[in-house]
Design brief:
By secondary structure, this protein is of the alpha/beta class. The chain is 40% helix and 20% strand. The protein has 8 helices and 10 strands. Strand 8 and strand 9 form a beta hairpin. The termini are far apart.
Length: 279
């Protein structure tokens, strides 16, 4: 009951979706074709997802499954939050769910116009504290009922989707990794330096990079977060999760014997004879 259906009705300027002032009005995911600034969109209105302990009807369980499927079908997700209730634990769970799905998204704070100045300041502090793990996500203050900043929310979602499809050349990402490890190298592990050699992009939605090096399994989480933030900043990834996969670089000579030339073999024999004489 945060205003998802009202958001779409107000955005397309048609009463296409049923809206009521009670939770559970939308049961199934509803697909709506809409042309926005020359861009064809498919808007999906999903059922709300409540806490598991409150989902006691079979039909509502079905609605939740359809909503989760809609996330996987989407290029971008708008997570609508009731600003008058603040950032709840359920909101955090849903945001974590979208991040784990790898989808680009933004957050729309609905009913923002109902807040007074003190409540707005409190909400801003709450966002900084509770959404620290999703600091790369844009938040937009909207009013679905009054059609306030709905276009901004859609624009943010589209921009985030485009960002999640961005291609980064191997040469550029490898050059960035090399520069970062020179200016701020990974810490030593048991007296040995972790080396990151090169990286390459292997997927989109979310942008996924494989970073090759030595002892990468011992790389600490804080350094991984540092690399992620620098990649996001360098290539202007907005509103999309980034995944980094670290792999050990295989030694192409592992398990192979070094075959000596005749000259090297004779030299080795001389060294062995000299060592025997000294003994």
């Amino acid at each position: 009951n945060v205003g998802k259906s009202t958001f779409i009705n107000s955005f397309i300027k048609e009463d296409r979706l049923l809206t009521q002032n009670r939770p559970g009005t939308t049961r199934d995911s509803i697909f709506i074709d809409f042309n926005y600034k020359g861009t064809p969109l498919v808007l999906i209105d999903t059922a709300g997802i409540r806490k598991k302990k409150k989902v006691d009807q079979t039909i509502e369980r079905f609605s939740v499954v359809k909503a989760l499927q809609a996330i996987d079908l989407s290029d971008s997700v708008i997570v609508i939050i009731d600003a008058s209730e603040g950032i709840t634990d359920q909101d955090l769970s849903l945001i974590g769910l979208v991040i784990n799905s790898g989808r680009a998204f933004c957050i729309a704070l609905n009913k923002y116009d109902l807040l007074d100045d003190e409540e707005k300041e409190q909400l801003e502090r709450q966002i900084k504290r509770r959404l620290k793990f999703a600091s790369f996500i844009e938040t937009i203050e909207i009013s679905a009922l009054k059609s306030m900043q709905l276009n901004q929310a859609i624009d943010s979602a589209i921009e985030s989707a485009k960002s999640s499809m961005q291609d980064v050349p191997t040469s550029k990402i490898s050059s960035l990794i090399e520069n970062l490890t020179e200016t701020k190298p990974p810490p030593y592990i048991q007296g040995r330096r972790i080396k990151l050699k090169y990286a390459t992009q292997v997927n989109h939605q979310p942008p996924t990079f494989i970073v090759y090096g030595t002892q990468t399994s011992k790389l600490r989480d804080n350094y991984k977060r540092f690399l992620e933030s620098q990649i996001r900043k360098a290539f202007k990834f907005k509103g999309t999760p980034i995944r980094l996969i670290f792999k050990e670089g295989n030694n192409p000579f592992a398990g192979k014997k070094n075959k000596l030339s005749m000259r090297q073999w004779k030299k080795r024999r001389r060294i062995i004879r000299i060592r025997k004489k000294k003994k």
